[in-house]
Amino acid sequence: MSATDNPPAAWEELDVARVRQAIEAALAPLPVGDRLDAVVVAITARRLAEYARALLPRATAAHGARRSSRGPGLAGLGLTHVRYRLTHADCPDAGTDVDAAYVWCQEMARSCQMLLGLVSDNSEGPALCPLPQEGEAPAGPP
After folding, report:
1. What is the model's pTM?
2. CB of 86 closer than 8 Å to CB of 56
3. Which of 22, 24, 61, 116 has an alpha carbon within 20 to 30 A of 37's alpha carbon?
4. 83-119 pLDDT, tens per residue?
């Protein structure tokens, strides 16, 4: 797990490649004998939560445009779960319990995978996913 200092919340557009890198880093197996760095885990947790917050409105709009009238479906339940985690289930303090924070990061990375899958075609492009501006309704899938 590694981290950089570029906060995604300040971006006009979300760099899909960076989101995928963060997901891969959070889900990469920890080498046997390595210890988790609490600072890196905390930064990763913050970044994944920011990515999820940025992707959630677009994923919700994309799901709404595609869903059938037979209920929310699995994707709709996943969106509800992500929304709940972002508002009610904060990441445990990495300084106190780095293992619990690491597991939270892995779960949030899987949530980001799901959100990214709803807003993109999962191909190599587009490299950027435009985000809605303040007060603007989220667009459907790119």
Report:
1. 0.72
2. yes
3. 116
4. 988 998 888 999 899 999 999 999 999 999 999 888 8
DSSP-derived 3-state class of residue 48: helix
Residue corresponding to tokens 């980001």: 112
Q: How far apart are CA 22 and CA 105, in angstroms?
A: 10
State the chain's maximal CA–CA distance in angstroms: 50
Any idea what the Cα angle at residue 107 is, between residues 104 and 113, rounded to 5°? 140
Alpha carbon distance 142, 140 (integer Å): 6
Distance CA 77, CA 99 (A): 27
DSSP secondary-structure letter at 122?
Answer: S
**What are 99's two structure tokens?**
């293992």
Residue 41 has which token pair? 């885990």
What Rg, from alpha-carbon coordinates, does the chain have? 15
